[in-house]
Amino acid sequence: TVNEGTLTVPRRVNAGLTTIAAGATLGISPGGPVGDPSATSDFNEANFVLTGGSAPTGRLDVHKNGVVFDYISSSPSATVRAQIVSGYAGGNWTGNGITSSAAAADPTGHAVGYAEASEVGSPSSFLGQSVDATAVLVRYTRVGDADLNGTTDLVDFGRLAINFNNAGQWVTGDFNFDGNTNLNDFSLLALNFNQSALGSLPRGTAVPEAGVGLMGLIGTAVLARRRRG
Fold first, then answer.
1. How many CA atoms are closer than 13 Å to the CA of 154, on its beta-carbon side?
2. HSE of 64 in the Cβ direction (CA atoms, 13 Å)?
3. How far is 67 from 52, CA to CA, in rounded Å?
4. Single pTM value for the model
5. Which residues lie below 8 Å from residue 74, measured CB to CB, with a gap of 6+?
6. How far apart are CA 56 and CA 60, in angstroms?
7. Torsional sign, CA 33, 115, 104, 60
8. Residues 6-53: pLDDT tens digits?
C-alpha cells in the first residue's frame, strides 16, 4: 500500500494487493528502452486498487512502460479509461489516475494508450507478458498508436477512418480522450504518422506529406460510409 508521497518500484508482476491511497503516487521505474519487457507490470485487476475508482484520487505513473490488467469475467476497461482520462488532465498528464511522467514531457508526441486484448487481435503476449483475451492492455506509446504496437501507421489510420465522426475509444481513434473520433484526432495522428514510441523524427519532415495523403484517404472513407448509409 502506498499511503502518501511517491513510491517508485520495479515492475509489479502477479503481486498481492496493491493499493494507492488518496494523494499518493506509485511509479513504475522507467527501466530500459520504451516498452522494455523487464519493466512491464501485470496486475490482477481484483488486487489493484486506485483509490476513487473512476474518479481517482491517487496516481499510477507508468513512466514509459506497459501494464496488463488481468480479469476473470468483468472487464475493468471503463474504469481504466476513466483513470487515464483523469491522468491526461486535458493534455498535460498531470492529473490523478493512470498517467505517465514521460508523456507529460512530450504530450503531443506520446500518451498512455489502452485497449482490451480482444480489440487488438488477442495477442498471446504483450511487451513480454503472457496475456489472454480477458486483459486490458495499457502502455506508454506514440499518440495515434491505436493498436498499441508502438508505431503510428496506416493500420492505425484505418481504425480512425472506419470510426470517423463516431463516439470513440483509444483503439478506434480517440487520441485526445474527448470521447469522439474526429479531425482533432486525425491532426494528432498526422503529426505523429510513421513514428514510433521509441523516438521521433524532426517535427515537420515527413508529416505534411503524410498528412495530405491521409486527408484524402479519410475523405474517401467517409464518403463511402455515407453512400452505404
1. 4
2. 19
3. 19
4. 0.88
5. none
6. 10
7. negative
8. 999 999 898 789 999 999 999 999 878 898 899 999 999 889 999 999
